[in-house]
User: Which sequence fits this backbone?
């Protein structure tokens, strides 16, 4: 029997079908081992010795045992993991684990294939090789480097930057890119400019022309900088009679883009399909494992010659001969590391223009069209420029148009871009020199220069690639980590830096400037590529890094948190305390000013729950402003204030700011009543404050039960409650306005939805079939949180995993782990203990002596 090891169950199932009964194919479920998440897993003082442990997940451990048991009975071990550094590393881990368990077969081979098709797999089996030690060394170097960076720097953050979470080598630099763009936007000052557009008509066809020359002088974008000059220019165009002075027509050629790499696939899927980088890679993984596309982690742009031939044949079958160029197109990769530059992402069969379903089908369509277009004919366009001049020759207008003479590859695919420039317009009417088109109107349009746009996932991936930071296969996880740690948020498909992200970036720029420098991080990636290419020694790279990084970390660790906060107070002063429109000191304390205290100035402070802005007159002045909390607003003035006195008790009603935001307080000490201030309260005055403090409100007695119906605001928003059952309300206003009839109706509707007649919840995500039960797996919303199910077994999704990001592999692991535990046991009340008779107790003594022997036998079995 020959044992083949791959990463995923789907891949294993497909390959076993291709290889036949003499082969047994098992999945490792990705990596089987990792560095333990504790100090000392990488030891620089011991020549960078590294400890590895098998993942604690029960499913992983069971699978490792299954691999080891199968290996003991195998004649040959074939390591067929993915053809990249991570794939090589998984094979190395499996090999090392089997060696330590003395389960390694005599014959061990490594095979790779770029596509999971019968031809590619069977051909690969004929060409085995040894493991590539250079790729393994590059993996070891990168893993050790990331571990040393994270496990050395994160404790510094926890102790010196309260509220900070952690920092990663590549993630920190990606975060800096987003923060730098935020700073550019804040520093940007808009400039006014105007454009003059004339609307003409020629032979019934309308077209527009822009003013390009005024009073004999050529205009640039910013020449008309105010309304006065714009109106004068508009008048000059309205007063003149313009005729066609010149017509220039130029042929333009456009060539297709190469097939997708990992990076360009992520960018185009984000633009055209709205996919996140992580979702794109999940869909691509499924398509690869189904044998529909070639390997999706690649920086190569070339296609195999047989694929090029098949692609050209498909073009001939679908289009006329002119769409197929005379010679094939060959593209060159920009990747420096030839060992990791694989074939581009393409369909495995150009006869199939559809594969998969849902989002996978949409992604396949994109991959298919891009690959097909890459071998198609050049697009032939014609760009026309018409110059219209006023009689005196002092003023001129220009109209541009473009027409496609032959679409070529554009018939299939056109590349998209995040931020498009103005195009050349559509088709212009036929005109000759001396023609005087009819002028219909003239417009003076005001414009303002725009700041650079915030990054989208596509443009961030492009920027990371251009800077040489990280590698395409890591972009998805890098971006996801920034979101998970709440250093950034996404609004309208654009990245916004959270204050916590800005604070972390400021800390790293000020105290660890080298390690968040773009050129340093890019240079480190090149060094790691040199290792995988056999041009550098991995431990030498780690030694050089550690030699400088460790002393720097120790130096910062010795500083007082207050000293670090003082440095950041200065470093972030422009952001924290921008210039005020009233000319006052940006640091002046509004509460001190309100209460007549002199000398109150604001400074950045560090507290148990993170950084905040406070007055130097503390404790006399209790002004605070939140900072570095996800979703907080630096401009929010959350000062304490007395709104008035409660007419019933005479106690002051105060607006305060706490750890979780603004709240109301009536009275002092333990007897004080408090209430959060909802975000949808339009204006907070004493009347509204008293209404919030008075909650819950009794709407009335339910007509059927006679029990109270309450309206209030809870952790999940406004609600109605009756006899332990709830109904949601839309807004805070509804808490005070909802009457009896509406309340009874809402509670009845909520009860219907919650009962047996409730409509079946829609799945958050639909995955593939479970390899054992063959049932479709779904991610579902649940009363106690999201879960994954195959219809028989329900498994809770961990809190640190977003339900929409659950992969098929994770789902299988969760379901199998839950199934292995068996059905949930109901807790039973323990019966009262009875004192055993003396004789029975004595009878049990000999059995007790045998316990050590049983324990020893169990230990031997575990070994």
Assistant:
């Amino acid at each position: 029997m020959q044992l083949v090891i791959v990463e995923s169950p789907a891949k294993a199932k497909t390959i076993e079908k291709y290889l036949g009964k003499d082969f047994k194919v098992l999945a490792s479920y990705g990596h089987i081992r990792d560095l333990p998440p504790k100090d000392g897993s990488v030891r620089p003082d011991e020549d960078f010795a590294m400890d590895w442990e098998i993942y604690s997940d029960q499913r992983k451990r069971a699978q490792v045992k299954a691999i080891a048991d199968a290996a003991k009975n195998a004649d040959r071990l074939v390591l067929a993991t993915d053809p990249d550094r991570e794939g090589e590393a998984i094979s190395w881990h499996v090999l090392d684990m089997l060696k330590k368990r003395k389960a390694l077969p005599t014959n061990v081979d490594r095979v790779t294939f770029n596509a999971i098709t019968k031809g590619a797999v069977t051909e690969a089996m004929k060409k085995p090789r040894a493991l590539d030690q250079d790729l393994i060394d590059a993996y070891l170097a990168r893993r050790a480097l990331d571990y040393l960076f994270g496990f050395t720097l994160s404790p510094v953050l926890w102790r010196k930057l309260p509220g900070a979470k952690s920092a990663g080598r590549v993630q920190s630099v990606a975060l800096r890119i987003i923060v730098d763009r935020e700073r550019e936007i804040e520093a940007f000052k808009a400039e006014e400019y105007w454009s003059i557009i004339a609307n003409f008509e020629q032979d019934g066809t309308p077209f527009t022309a822009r003013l390009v020359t005024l009073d004999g002088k050529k205009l640039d974008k910013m020449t008309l900088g105010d309304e006065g000059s714009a109106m004068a220019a508009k008048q000059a165009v309205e007063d003149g009679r313009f005729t066609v002075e010149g017509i220039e027509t130029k042929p333009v050629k456009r060539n297709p883009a190469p097939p997708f790499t990992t990076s360009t696939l992520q960018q185009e899927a984000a633009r055209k399909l709205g996919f996140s980088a992580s979702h794109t890679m999940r869909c691509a993984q499924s398509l690869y494992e189904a044998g529909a596309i070639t390997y999706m982690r690649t920086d190569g742009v070339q296609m195999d010659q047989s694929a090029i031939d098949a692609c050209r044949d498909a073009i001939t079958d679908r289009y006329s001969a002119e769409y197929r160029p005379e010679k094939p197109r060959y593209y060159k990769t920009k990747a420096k590391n030839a060992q990791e530059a694989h074939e581009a992402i393409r369909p495995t069969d150009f006869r199939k223009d559809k594969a998969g379903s849902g989002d996978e089908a949409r992604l396949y369509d994109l991959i298919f069209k891009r690959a097909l277009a890459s071998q198609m004919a050049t697009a032939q366009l014609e760009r026309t420029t018409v110059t219209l001049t006023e009689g005196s020759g002092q003023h001129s207008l220009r109209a541009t148009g473009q027409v496609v003479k032959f679409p070529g590859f554009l018939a299939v695919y056109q590349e998209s871009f995040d931020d498009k420039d103005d195009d050349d317009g559509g088709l212009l009417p036929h005109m000759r020199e001396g023609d005087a088109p009819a002028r219909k109107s003239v417009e003076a349009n005001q414009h303002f220069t725009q700041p650079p746009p915030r990054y989208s996932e596509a443009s961030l991936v492009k920027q990371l690639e251009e800077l040489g930071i990280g590698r395409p296969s890591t972009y998805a996880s890098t971006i996801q980590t920034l979101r998970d740690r709440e250093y950034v948020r996404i609004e309208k498909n654009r990245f916004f830096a959270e204050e916590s992200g800005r604070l972390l970036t400021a800390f790293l720029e000020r105290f660890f400037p080298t390690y968040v420098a773009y050129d340093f991080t890019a240079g480190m990636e090149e060094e790691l590529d040199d290792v995988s290419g056999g041009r550098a020694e991995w431990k030498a790279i780690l030694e050089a890094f550690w030699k400088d990084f460790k002393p720097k970390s120790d130096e910062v660790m010795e500083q007082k948190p207050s000293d670090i906060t003082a440095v950041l107070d200065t470093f972030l002063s422009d952001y924290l305390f921008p210039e005020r429109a009233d000319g006052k000191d940006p640091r002046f304390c509004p509460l001190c000013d309100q209460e007549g205290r002199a000398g109150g100035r604001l400074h950045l402070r560090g507290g148990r729950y993170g950084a905040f802005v406070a007055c130097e007159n503390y404790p006399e002045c209790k002004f605070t402003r939140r900072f570095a909390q996800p979703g907080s607003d630096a401009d929010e003035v959350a000062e304490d204030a007395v709104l008035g006195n409660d007419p019933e008790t005479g106690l002051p009603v105060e607006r305060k700011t706490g750890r979780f935001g603004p709240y109301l307080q009536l009275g002092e000490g333990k007897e004080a009543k408090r209430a959060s201030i909802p975000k949808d309260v339009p204006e907070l005055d004493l009347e509204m404050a008293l209404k919030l403090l008075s909650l819950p409100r009794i709407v009335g007695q339910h007509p059927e039960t006679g029990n109270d119906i309450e309206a209030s605001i809870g952790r999940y928003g406004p609600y109605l409650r009756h006899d332990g059952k709830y109904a949601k309300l839309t807004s805070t206003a509804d808490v005070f306005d909802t009457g009896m009839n509406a309340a009874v109706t809402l509670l009845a509707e909520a009860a219907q939805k919650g009962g047996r007649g409730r409509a079946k919840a829609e799945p958050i995500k639909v995955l593939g079939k479970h390899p054992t039960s063959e049932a479709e797996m779904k991610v579902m919303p649940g009363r106690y949180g999201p879960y994954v199910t195959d219809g028989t077994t329900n498994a809770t999704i961990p809190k640190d995993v977003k339900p929409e990001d659950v992969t098929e592999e994770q789902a299988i692991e969760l379901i199998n782990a839950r199934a292995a535990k068996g059905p949930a046991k109901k807790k039973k009340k323990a019966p009262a203990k009875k004192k055993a008779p003396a004789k029975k107790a004595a009878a049990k003594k000999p059995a007790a002596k045998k316990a050590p022997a049983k324990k020893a036998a169990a230990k031997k079995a575990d070994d």
The two ends are 26 Å apart (CA to CA). Residues 91 and 588 are 62 Å apart (CA to CA).
